[in-house]
Specification:
The structure is a single chain. The protein is mainly beta. Strands 4, 5, 6, 7, 8, 9 and 10 form a 7-stranded mixed sheet that branches. The chain has a 3-stranded antiparallel sheet with strand order 1-12-11, with no helix packed on it. Strand 8 and strand 9 form a beta hairpin. The longest helix is centred in the middle third of the chain and has 5 residues.
Length: 129
Amino acid sequence: MLIPYKIFGNEERLPFVKLTLQGPKNNVITEAFVDSGADFSIFHSGWINYLGLSLRKGISKRIQVGDGDYIHAFLFQVDVIFYGWTFKAPITFSEHLGPGFNLLGRKGFFNRFRFCFDDKHYRLSVTRL
């Protein structure tokens, strides 16, 4: 499938994808920036209560972010719906997520899908492996 880049901020076009996080209490339909340099997907911790998860019941992680700093996050195995496919993926949640949007990292996604970035035409090709 071809996914057009999303216009973000000052007319910058970036590769965002849509996905649903499924929790024991509720589901969250959201989007995330596809970050091939990130090991883990990171979502803002504000979703935790809504999903019906307890932040402190996740596995505590220190994750290095793009500027070299580390943020504290909590890792969960979350049921995800991604373009018609449902599977469990490691998702971290952090109160310190800085860029203002969720990040989709490699673990749990890049082993299931091929992501091809076409910056010339501002689109992302996603293929199930």
